[in-house]
Amino acid sequence: KYQISYFMPEKPTYEWVKKDHIDKAPIWCSVDLRDGNQALIEPMSLDEKLEFFKMLVEIGFKEIEIGFPAASDTEYKFARTLIENNMIPDDVTIQVLTQAREHIIKKTFEAVKGAPHAVIHLYNSTSVAQREQVFKKSKEEVKQIAIDGAKLLNDLAQKAEGDFSFEYSPESFPGTEVEYAVEVCNAVLDVWKPTKEHKAIINIPTTVEIAMPHVFATQVETINKTLKYREGVVLSLHPHNDRGCGISDAELGLLAGADRIEGTLFGNGERTGNVDIVTLAMNMVSHGVDSKLDFSDITKIGETYERLTRMKIYERSPYGGALVFTAFSGSHQDAISKGFAYRKENMDKPWSVPYLPIDPKDLGREYDGDVIRINSQSGKGGVSYILEHNFGMAVPKQMQSDVGYTMKGVSDKEHAELDPERVYEIFMDKYVNPA
Ligand code: KIV
Ligand code: ZN
C-alpha cells in the first residue's frame, strides 16, 4: 500500500537490543473494543462495535480483543453475534478478557462457545498496593488466584466446543516486584505448559505507567530471559500512556525482546489511553518496515473512529491529527515548496521533504489544503506556492516578497486564515485588476 521509501538515519544497535526485532512488525492486537471501549463516556452499542470490528479487520488486525463478555449484556451479545453469524474471518482470532474469578471465567466461556478460535485473556492484580489495600492477601495467595484461574481455563477449554488458547496478564505490573511478576507468570505457565505448537501469551501491562521507558525495557529484558517455556510463549506488551511514554515503552520493549503489542487506534483507552497503534505502525513505515497494517486512508479511519467512539482526534496527534502536515510559518513553507520541487525531479530518491516526516499521501492525505496554509505567519514561498499550484500563476521572483507581505498584512488585520480562493482574490485585486 505504501509507495514511499524514506530517508533513514543509521540504526545503532546496543548490547541489549534484539537485532531481529528491529526491522520486523510485532504481532498486533487491537484492544479498542475492550480497553478503549470501557473508557468511553458512552460505550459503543452492539452495532457500533460491529462496525468498529469490521474496520479493524480491514486495517489488517489479526488479533482483536472484542470485549469483557461478563461485564455487560452488550459485551456478551457482541461475542455471540460475531460467533453465531460467522463474522470472524478465518485468519482473525478474537480475544476476550476475564478476571481470575470462577463465575466470570465460566460466563466468559459461555460467551465464546463455538468460536472457531479464541484467546481467553486471564488477569489478576499483582501489585503491592492491590495486595495490601484491595485484596488484603499475601504474595502466595495472590499467586494462587492466578494458578486457580489458569487451571479453570484448562478444565473448561477441554470440555468446551471450540479451539482456545490462553493469555495471562499480571495486572498492575508496574507496581509489582519484577521477580514476583515473573514468579506468578511462570506458575501460570506451569499450569498451561505451552509449546511451540500451542503457544500461550504472557502480557505485560503498564496498567498505570510509572517508570521511564528504559526502566520498562530493562524489565521486559529480565522477563524475556526468565520466563519458562519461552519457546511456547508469545511475550506481549500492553502499554498505557500515563507519563506520555506509551510509544517509547512499546518501541523499547520490542527491542528488548517482546513479540506482540496490545494497543488502540489513536490511543483511546483508560485514563491517558493505551498505546496508539497508528503512531507505532507509521513510525515503522517511516523506517521502511512493513507494519502489516493499512492506514493508507487515515481520514476515513479517523472519521469512523470519531463517530463510533464520540472521541476527538487531537489536531496534533501523530499521523492522524488534522494539523500534523500543515505549515503556516514562512520559513517552513519556503523549505517545503522547495522540497516539493526537488522531489518532482528526484522521484527515485527516498522521501526527504523538509518538515514532512512522511509523505502525507502515504496516509491518503492530500498536499492541497493539508500542507501549505496561509495566515499572518506565512511568507512569500507559501503564498507563491498556493498561487502557482492552485491557480497556475507563477509569481515573478521580484514580486514574491511584496505579494507575501500583502497576504500577511491582510491576514494579520483580519486575524484570520486566508483560504486559497481568498489569496487569489487579494492577488487579483491588488496586482492584476487594481481599482
Ligand atoms: O491495563 C491493564 O492492565 C489491562 C489488563 C486487563 C491487561 O487492561
Ligand atoms: Zn489496559
Features:
single chain, 435 residues, 8-stranded parallel β-barrel, 8 strands, 44% helix, elongated, binds 3-methyl-2-oxobutanoic acid, binds zinc ion
Please explain how this structure is put together.
The chain is α/β, with parallel strands linked by helices. It is 44% helix and 11% strand. It is built from 15 helices and eight strands. Strands 1-2-3-4-5-6-7-8 form an eight-stranded parallel beta barrel, surrounded by seven helices. Strand 2, helix 3 (73-84) and strand 3 (93-99) form a beta-alpha-beta unit. Helix 4 packs parallel to helix 6 and helix 6 runs parallel beside helix 7 (178-192). The longest helix has 21 residues, at 139-159. It is elongated, with a radius of gyration of 26 Å. Zinc ion binds at residues 35, 205, 238, 240, 270, 274. Residues 35, 97, 123, 169, 171, 203, 205, 207, 238, 240 line the site of 3-methyl-2-oxobutanoic acid. Catalyzes the condensation of the acetyl group of acetyl-CoA with 3-methyl-2-oxobutanoate (2-ketoisovalerate) to form 3-carboxy-3-hydroxy-4-methylpentanoate (2-isopropylmalate). It is an enzyme of class 2 (transferase).
Strands ordered across the widest β-sheet: 1-2-3-4-5-6-7-8
Work out the helix count. 15
Question: Termini, distance in Å?
Answer: 51 Å
Rg is 26 Å
- Uncertain stretches of 5 or more adjacent residues: none
Oligomer kind? single chain
> Can you give the mean pLDDT?
96
* Tertiary shape: elongated
Please count the beta strands (DSSP E, at least 2 residues each). 8
Percent helix: 40-55%
Strand content: 5-15%
**Major pleated sheet:** 8 strands, parallel, barrel
What is the H-and-E element order?
A: EHHEHEHEHHEHEHEHEHHHHHH
Subunit structure: Homodimer.
Family: Belongs to the alpha-IPM synthase/homocitrate synthase family. LeuA type 2 subfamily.
Subcellular location: Cytoplasm
Function: Catalyzes the condensation of the acetyl group of acetyl-CoA with 3-methyl-2-oxobutanoate (2-ketoisovalerate) to form 3-carboxy-3-hydroxy-4-methylpentanoate (2-isopropylmalate).
